[in-house]
Design a protein that fits this description.
Distance between the termini of chain B: 38 Å
Structural class of chain B: alpha/beta
Number of strands of chain B: 10
Largest sheet of chain A: 2 strands, antiparallel
Bound molecules: adenosine-5'-triphosphate, magnesium ion
CATH topology of chain A: MetI-like fold
Number of helices of chain B: 10
Strand order of the largest sheet of chain B: 6-7-8-3-9-10
Largest sheet of chain B: 6 strands, mixed
Shape of chain A: flat
CATH architecture of chain A: Orthogonal Bundle
Number of helices of chain A: 12
Radius of gyration of chain A: 23 Å
Order of helices and strands of chain A: HHEEHHHHHHHHHH
CATH class of chain A: Mainly Alpha
Oligomer: heterodimer
Chain lengths: ~300, ~260
């Protein structure tokens, strides 16, 4: 029970908290409401088919299925997390264990800063700097020499592709994942580090023990990172190629749900049902995001329980 | 006894600074094999720092500096790889710190695994059991080896930490007030465990303790540290009967 003196203060804050929940509920409601016509018309095929046939002639001539952007969202997010995970863990370990104090604090701040940069900057950098380099030094050589592997089988036309988007997303979520893992790492009491070392652990063995001590936080970082990657919009729209394409080839252009919405929403009102389809897409994103964040938050709580602060 | 010949631990002219502060001042002492050295002294006098200098955990403390020589069973601690010298030693810390994410079994097994002391699962099981028995914990945990350690009482956790250290078959065992945060019953169990270790194994023990009674009960040698200086060192019987330094007298009476 809340003590009496605090109760009025508590009550005075209640409306603000309530507003946040109400806004969220409203948001979810609007998404669901606006998606409904599309869901009623296309049903599950909205998620299982890859078609994009807008028409100005009327509702009966249009057909939409979001499988390609859905596929693109998953593939690019997974590439991003797969690249970002080892890099963030390694960076945290290196900074916390090997770098001198001043350097550590400096780079930590720089990385935190990177997390807050406007994402359009990443997009432009990805388009102008990363893609040409990637195309010249990674995609073309891999395609030339290893084109019997399906991943590298297609010609990297412009360079805008699943791989480019995945890599750019990796760069964008590293600061974020690094932050989550670093916080957990710093929560591990020194006495466990000493215990591990007193057992004669080498640096590598010590690293493995430390990783096992923060495993829930690492899982959380991956899930939250995936959520971020899936919802990233503008930067991805610049480098993913924007094609309704489902291909195992990393160099092929594709789409993600977020970049699809960003690209097409302005024109969507000219075509029947297109807006509703996009709302349905964002509903999927919302569900995915809530799932990932939910598990992530539970994992973070486990860390806090273990090392209590 | 021939065992008496070599020393288990030799410290010569040891000085430790942390952030420019002189913490250990010119400490020198020698402990023969298979003996217990009790290190005593008021809070903040540098006892834990001395232990950390012996197994080089001091390397973890930024801006720390060590001068002097430490030999453990003839191995010069500061001219070897730290992880290699640490494998000669085991350490039990002031507060119980079993790894919270590993089962009771895993906590004991991790050391032998890291150090590749065993060839197969059976040997590992055998060693884990042996270590838990030596730490007088086996009977209490044999039916729940897969539980996480947070279910154990503080005293049981501390004995688990003792087992974890013993599983490495260390030649030198460093104990930092192992009974300081533990109830009397568990404290007695730990003392018993230490005595039986000395009977059965080639092992030497350095025990930091706050309790004069404990020191007198189980140690062969006593070192008394005050503000980083070794003010008194010798056989326990001699010091207990005839302390030379007035601080030792006060401490033994429980006045410091
Ligand atoms: N990591 C550290 N950073 C800075 N100073 C330290 C550090 N560790 C120890 N010291 C300093 O070294 C001195 C000795 O500390 P130490 O922990 O060795 O004392 P102690 O004899 O073990 O005390 P207690 O009986 O309270 O455990 C203290 O003045 C302490 O402030
Ligand atoms: Mg201490």
């Amino acid at each position: 029970m809340i003590p009496k003196v605090d109760r009025s203060f508590f009550l005075s804050l209640l409306p603000f908290a309530a507003i946040i929940f109400a806004l969220f509920a409203l948001l979810a409601y609007v998404l669901a409401y606006e998606s409904r016509p599309a869901i009623e018309r296309f049903g599950l095929s909205l998620l299982t088919e890859n078609v994009w046939k807008p028409s100005e002639r009327g509702v009966e001539f249009v057909k939409y299925g979001l499988l390609a952007p859905l596929y693109g969202t998953l593939v690019t997010s997974l590439i991003a997390a797969a690249i970002a995970l080892p890099l963030s863990v390694a960076t945290v370990f290196f900074m916390e264990e090997m770098a001198p104090y001043r350097i550590r604090e400096f780079f930590s701040s720089v990385i935190d800063l990177m997390a807050g940069l406007p994402t359009i900057i990443y997009g432009l950098w990805g388009l102008e700097v990363m893609i040409p380099l990637l195309r010249r030094w990674v995609m073309s050589p891999l395609h030339e020499h290893l084109d019997f592997i399906p991943l590298f089988a297609c010609d990297p036309l412009s360079g805008a592709s699943f791989l480019a988007a995945g890599l750019l997303l990796a760069v964008m979520i590293i600061p974020f994942m690094h932050g989550v893992i670093k916080e957990a790492y710093r929560q591990v009491p020194r006495t466990y580090k000493e215990a591990a070392l007193s057992l004669g652990a080498t640096r590598y063995e010590y690293f493995r023990i430390m990783v096992s001590l923060i495993r829930p936080a690492i899982i959380a970082a991956v899930l939250l990172g995936l959520g971020r990657a899936a919802s990233e919009t503008v930067a991805v729209a610049l480098v993913v190629g924007n094609a309704f394409n489902i291909s195992p080839c990393l160099f092929a252009p594709g789409y993600t749900i977020s970049s699809l919405i960003a690209n097409q929403f302005t024109e969507a009102s000219f075509f029947p049902l297109m807006e509703n389809v996009m709302f349905a897409g964002s509903l999927v994103l919302l569900a995915l995001g809530m799932l990932f964040s939910g598990i992530g938050v539970v994992m973070m709580r486990r860390v806090r329980e273990l090392y209590g602060r | 006894m021939i065992e008496e010949k070599g020393y288990a631990l030799q410290i010569e002219g040891l000085n430790v600074w942390i952030r420019g502060k002189h913490i250990i001042k010119d400490v020198g002492l020698e402990v023969p094999k298979r003996r217990i050295l009790a290190v005593m002294g008021p809070s903040g006098s540098g006892k834990s720092t001395l232990l950390r200098a012996i197994n080089r955990l001091i390397d973890l403390i930024p801006e720390s500096k060590v001068e002097g020589r430490i030999l453990v069973y003839g191995t010069d601690v500061y001219s070897e790889d730290p992880y290699r010298v640490r494998r000669l030693m085991g350490m039990v810390f002031q507060t119980p710190n079993p790894f919270p994410n590993m089962s009771i079994y895993e906590n004991v097994a991790i050391g032998p695994k890291l150090n590749r002391l065993v060839k197969n699962r059976d040997e590992l099981n055998e060693l884990v059991r042996w270590a838990l028995e030596k730490a007088m914990l086996w009977d209490e945990v044999k039916d729940r080896l897969d539980d996480l350690p947070h279910r154990l009482s503080g005293g049981q956790q501390q004995r688990l930490c003792l087992a974890r250290a013993l599983a490495l078959k260390p030649k030198l065992l460093l104990l930092d007030e192992p009974t300081g945060n533990v109830d009397p019953v568990n404290a007695v169990k730990i003392e018993e465990a230490l005595r039986s270790l000395l009977r059965d194994l080639e092992i030497t023990i350095v025990l930091v303790t706050h309790t004069p009674h404990q020191a007198v009960r189980i140690s062969d040698y006593i070192a008394f540290i005050y503000m980083g200086e070794l003010v008194e060192y010798g056989l326990t019987d001699t010091i207990a009967l005839n302390p030379r330094h007035e601080l030792t007298v006060k401490f033994l009476r429980g006045e410091v």
